[in-house]
Fold this sequence. Notes:
Strand order of the largest sheet: 1-2-11-6-15-4-3
Family: Belongs to the alkB family.
Protein name: Fe2OG dioxygenase domain-containing protein
GO biological process, one term: DNA damage response
Structural class: alpha+beta
InterPro entries: AlkB-like, AlkB-like_sf, ALKBH7-like, Oxoglu/Fe-dep_dioxygenase_dom
Bound molecules: 2-oxoglutaric acid, fe (ii) ion
CATH topology: Jelly Rolls
Strand content: 25-35%
Region (Disordered): 1-27
Shape: globular
Amino acid sequence: MENHTEVLREVFGESSSDGEDFDPQLEDEKITDPIPSWEQIKEINGLWLCRDFLSPQLQSSLVSSVLNEGWFNGDSHNQAMRFGDLPAWAIELSSSIREAVLLGDYVSESMDLVTSNGWIKPCLLPSNLLWREPLFDQLIANVYHPGEGICAHVDLMRFEDGIAIVSLESSCVMHFSRAEEGGSDIVEDGEKHQLMSKIPVLLTPGSLVLMSGEARYRWKHEINRKPGFQMWDGQELVQHRRISITLRKLRQVD
Ligand SMILES: O=C(O)CCC(=O)C(=O)O
Ligand SMILES: [Fe+2]
């Protein structure tokens, strides 16, 4: 962000003091409590994870809001999509995402921008995406029972760049693999194995994933919850129901 003071002023309001210039240092406690901690997935440009995005209370209230929509009342339904006007809770969720990005960028930019080797810290989400209106206008809520997941895919091109996924309930491992075809495949015992290894990312309840740029367009993501695939730290994760909320923006058609 170019001017954080302005941005923070806009989002969090004026300083409570007497009209003096806004001083982020003085405002620290108000605006950085709690500070979201963002982790960059180093192997994949544009992939960020915020593990403490939603407190346990906010997680349960979000689960209630989703279930209260009645989308999953029949056993056969495990996915719901909404376009355009999103439910109030989803609009609130979008605002919290924008806020978490702003706070994350604010915290990292308050440190030295340029490191000793001249490398500039990448931002969480390019500002043209962060400030578009609305930030998101499409949502998918998925409910996964134990053993259920989602095949490797790149999200459809009908959606713009900048995709957010909020995870609730059971933890899972999402794997990322390069979307490029051919090149590095080898054939062994009649099966195709990709030389390129998959990058595992642990999605704990209440976490937020942000995908933009390469992470969104050049990497596939998948969740394989078949036995043996949900390994983390040498242990297989115990599976319960998992709910995810994916937020995206539809591409404008000219
Ligand atoms: O459930 C998830 O965490 C991912 C969902 C997803 O990738 C999608 O709906 O495109
Ligand atoms: Fe996806």
